[in-house]
């Protein structure tokens, strides 16, 4: 578990790196949207934005160190008008690309508040260049770019533990994958077909409807819909009836060990037809597996056809909060709405949230919450009827399934002196995240 000390250490390493880059640059430094590239690194290496001539090398590096399809995914991103080459950075040794990372634009929605977000993806270093801090430097670039793009959080799926070194914390549960143990009979009036670009509005509308019951959501960006239609590692499907799209899903390529994810349907009959249509695409002895979206139309309609025994380990999305005050400030309308809905009146007082090394004071006014004021360390927030939340649990508190009550039971450095107030402000949350990569 990363401790607050480790978080501080991580920050100071990033700062050191930035300082080092500033001291020894032999390359011209250009400011692009508030962040500086290129950056000189030790041993004559340089970090810079990707160029068209790098694409083949980046693709080869990603395929070698990750999945073969990563090269296609990367090309789709950097050739898309919404992302482009500046979304990707490389570390080069001369002309040789030895490390790379890409930052995608996302949006996390929580209780009606839309938070601009970044997602780091397509990360790899050549084996012989590992352990030299190249991804640490690329993460610094990605976070600077993310800040310049106004992102208030970063969300990602990544290899275990690694990204905690860069300020990410596990916060949002990834839903279970469950086996299908019976297939409903289809009624034969609807047709399952591969999705086309013209289906994007219908698919997005079905997804919005499926996500409407969750507290925290991340939809596919418009660009991501295009990449999903074009890439090869997953397929988008629509179920059509009388020229109307009534259900949609995303699967791994048809065949053995097929996975059905991101299912959404107009009604339960469409959901059952979707399941039988996709099951017909699967082959082999392995059962079709589905990502369970609890409480949605498909989640409800498929109850009797799935084995509810959870499989596999716990999985969670990582969240990074680069600036707690800025995020809390953006969440003020939501926090106010939670207070008023619960009938809690603390007018004239401050809500104090201490992350121990700093604290955030939110004045409760007669008709809303005032601007967040940041202050220094408060070791005992109970003395001011506040809450204490270690910075590495803040993402779980704001976006996760436990709420302050659940976290208080398992984390010694999460607690509150005014339980009534803080349990209302920080309840357990449900979440549904759609990402470019299926996290399974
Ligand atoms: C994982 C990978 C990206 C790391 O790249 P790298 O350039 O060697 O990373 P860095 O040298 O910048 O390492 C930064 C820190 O992470 C540590 N680290 C490196 N790999 C790690 C791992 N797999 N798990 C935990 N820590 C790791 C380093 O020791 C270093 O710590 P320090 O700064 O405290 O000394 C690289 O090994 C790789 O390409 N692996 C295969 C593809 C992959 O897994 N990509 C990530 C997909 S999400």
List the helices and strands and how they pair.
Blueprint (H helix, E strand, L loop, with lengths): L3 H20 L6 E3 L2 E3 L1 E2 L5 E4 L5 H11 L4 H9 L9 E6 L2 E15 L2 E13 L8 H15 L4 E4 L11 E6 L3 E3 L11 E4 L5 H12 L4 E3 L3 H9 L4 E7 L2 E8 L7 E7 L2 H12 L9 E3 L5 H5 L14 E5 L3 H7 L1 H10 L8 E5 L4 E7 L2 E2 L3 E3 L11 E3 L4 H6 L3 H8 L3 E3 L2 H7 L5 E3 L7
Parallel strand pairs: 7-8, 12-24, 15-16, 18-22
Antiparallel strand pairs: 1-2, 3-4, 4-5, 5-6, 6-7, 6-12, 8-17, 9-17, 10-16, 11-13, 13-14, 14-15, 18-19, 19-20, 19-21, 22-23
Helix pairs in contact: 2-3
The structure holds coenzyme A.
How would you characterize this protein structure?
The protein has 440 residues and is of the alpha+beta class. The protein folds into 3 domains: 4-151, Aminopeptidase, CATH 3.40.630.30; 177-314, 3-Layer(aba) Sandwich (Aminopeptidase), CATH 3.40.630; 322-425. It has 13 helices and 24 strands. The protein has helices spanning 4-23, 55-65, 70-78, 134-148, 200-211, 222-230, 268-279, 297-301, 324-330, 332-341, 394-399, 403-410, 419-425, and strands at 30-32, 35-37, 39-40, 46-49, 88-93, 96-110, 113-125, 153-156, 168-173, 177-179, 191-194, 216-218, 235-241, 244-251, 259-265, 289-291, 316-320, 350-354, 359-365, 368-369, 373-375, 387-389, 414-416, 431-433. Strands 3, 4, 5, 6, 7, 8, 9, 12, 17 and 24 form a 10-stranded mixed sheet that branches. The chain has a 6-stranded mixed sheet with strand order 10-16-15-14-13-11. Strands 18, 19, 20, 21, 22 and 23 form a 6-stranded mixed sheet that branches. It is globular and about 65 Å long. It binds coenzyme A (COA). Residues 13, 65-66, 99, 123-125, 130-136, 158-159, 161-162, 165 line the site of coenzyme A (COA).
